[in-house]
Amino acid sequence: MSYEAVIGLEIHSELKTNTKIFCGCATTFGAEHNTHVCPVCLGLPGVLPTLNKRVLEFAIKAGLALNCEINKFSKFDRKNYYYPDLPKNWQTSQYDLPICENGYVDITKSNGETKRIRITRIHMEEDAGKLVHSG
């Protein structure tokens, strides 16, 4: 019996934006702990997130660069899991209706052949958070 190895990669990128993806809180690194938070970041009842326009622009540019279909309709979902660095116990993310999908990158192999690397999707999601311990 013969098998073919298929390897998938999940690649994350941190976008250089002035504010977070779903609120107006600053993204300045190195600030005092818990100073760049608001009711949206904390998932308090009654608050609604607003998508950062710059994040959407970055996602569309990445989709165009990777030959993706840019969807006219896209949605976000709550991905529920319990990690200590996730204060809301959910992460706002995309899955079944991402902003971009069905793309590819062509690379040239050492023998001159072209190999097509498929891109399943590009989706936007908030960063879960970070635990910082002094020791």
UniProtKB/TrEMBL annotation:
Residues 6-133 form the Aspartyl/Glutamyl-tRNA(Gln) amidotransferase subunit B/E catalytic domain. It comes from the Bacteria. Keywords: ATP-binding, Ligase, Nucleotide-binding, Protein biosynthesis, Transferase. InterPro entries: Asn/Gln-tRNA_amidoTrfase_suB/E, Asn/Gln-tRNA_Trfase_suB/E_cat, Gln_synth/guanido_kin_cat_dom. Pfam families: GatB_N. GO terms for molecular function: ATP binding; glutaminyl-tRNA synthase (glutamine-hydrolyzing) activity; transferase activity. The keyword Lipoprotein does not apply. GO terms for biological process: glutaminyl-tRNAGln biosynthesis via transamidation; translation. PANTHER family: GLUTAMYL-TRNA GLN AMIDOTRANSFERASE SUBUNIT B MITOCHONDRIAL AND PROKARYOTIC PET112-RELATED, GLUTAMYL-TRNA(GLN) AMIDOTRANSFERASE SUBUNIT B, MITOCHONDRIAL. This is Glutamyl-tRNA amidotransferase. It comes from Anaerovibrio lipolyticus.
